[in-house]
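INTERNAL AUDIT FORM
Audit reference: QA-55
Scope: verify that the stored structure record matches its stored sequence.
Auditor: D.O.
Record contents follow.
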Amino acid sequence: MQFKPAGDSALVIIFGDRIDEGINKKVHAVANAIEKASPDWLIEVVPTYTSIYVYYDPLKLSYQEALDAIKPFLSVEPKEEKPRIVEIPTAYGGEFGPDIEFVAQYNGLTIDDVIEIHSKPLYRVYMLGFTPGFAYLGGMDERIATPRLKKPRLKVPAGSVGIAGKQTGIYPIESPGGWRLIGRTPLRLFTPEKDPPTLLQPGDYVKFVPISEEEFWELHGGEQK
């Protein structure tokens, strides 16, 4: 475990150097404990794959004092709880997944192979970031690992399912992005007026369920574009 300053009002706790489910569970257990305690100097806790950024009020305590205050939380261990599994209906290929053919060719597979391989595992939500509700998912089969686009798109539709290297994820809102798009879900992943506003939370598991174009528009509400 390592500790480093991050600017003049944050510190980072590094639990490991690889994407690992056990490390990630520890990250979120400690982050949740700090958030629950909610000391008056705390501004924000941001968990990542393998680390936690703790933002504090520098007018109330120094870096060393913040570090000393954080250390008692490091003994917290993850609780063994039944994870929430969220099914994500996904229309693969066509207008929904314009890069699926490239992913298939790059890996020496057919499009059907890509769909089968991508939709088979349960994916852990390791962290949220990039845009509100963007879920970084771990557990993708390396047989479909594919590099990002050399030039990112200016607009990626909300619900797009993409691959970047050995990761897969879902764009919750329309935004720029350089991931290889292989499909799209009609589900709304970010709803600001809800509490919580994101459909997926760190620690959840995702199961992609292939659907047809017709099923997509039915679930979307029938508003074909």
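Auditor finding: record pair retrieved intact. The radius of gyration is 19 Å.
Action required: none
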